[in-house]
Design goal:
2 domains, Retropepsin-like_bacterial, single chain, Peptidase_aspartic_dom_sf, Transporter, 43% strand, Clan_AA_Asp_peptidase_C
């Protein structure tokens, strides 16, 4: 019985240490994500994420999303699943050349709001099957804004958009 109690105590201590470590890593990742995006007075700074990409938090028709900024994409794209979830009506079919090859998607209209005050209402968006949960923010939005990129920081001036 004493051997079982000792084993139970040791196991409990290791489980508690693992939980503390897990919660510490989660808190650190949350702070890192918050530090990657800053907006003040219409000036927006987005730091490159650990995956090497820039992420811009925002909303599509009121639903919170984390856009992946794709300066090589002509237009903005969302997953077909998100388009169905938001009940976005198709306005037609389009074929697009992507890094993964030619894909077929549905053209839909959506209201896009980006943290920092940038908005695009009734934006023409392509809904693609297999895109995943992270929508792509293309040059149809970013091209309307003065921006620069240096040292892993994307700087956007949205002061004229208010």
């Amino acid at each position: 019985m004493q051997e079982l109690s000792r084993s139970l105590k040791i196991t409990t201590v290791w489980l508690l240490l693992g939980l503390v470590l897990f919660l510490g890593v989660q808190a650190w990742q949350h702070r890192q994500a918050q530090a990657r995006f800053q907006a003040e007075g219409g000036l927006i700074e987005i730091r490159r994420g650990p995956d090497g990409h820039y992420h811009w938090p925002g909303r599509v028709n009121g639903r919170a999303v984390d856009f992946l900024i794709d300066t090589g994409a002509t237009g903005t794209a969302i997953s077909a699943d998100l388009a169905r979830e938001l009940d976005l009506a198709s306005e037609g079919t389009v074929r697009s050349a992507t890094a993964a090859g030619v894909v077929t998607g549905q053209v839909v209209r959506a209201d896009v709001q980006l943290d920092g005050g940038v908005r695009a209402e009734r934006l023409r968006v392509v809904a693609l099957a297999g895109l995943g949960e992270r929508p792509l923010l293309g040059m149809d939005v970013l091209g309307r804004l003065p921006w620069s990129q240096a040292d892993g920081v994307l700087r956007i001036d949205a002061r004229g958009l208010r």
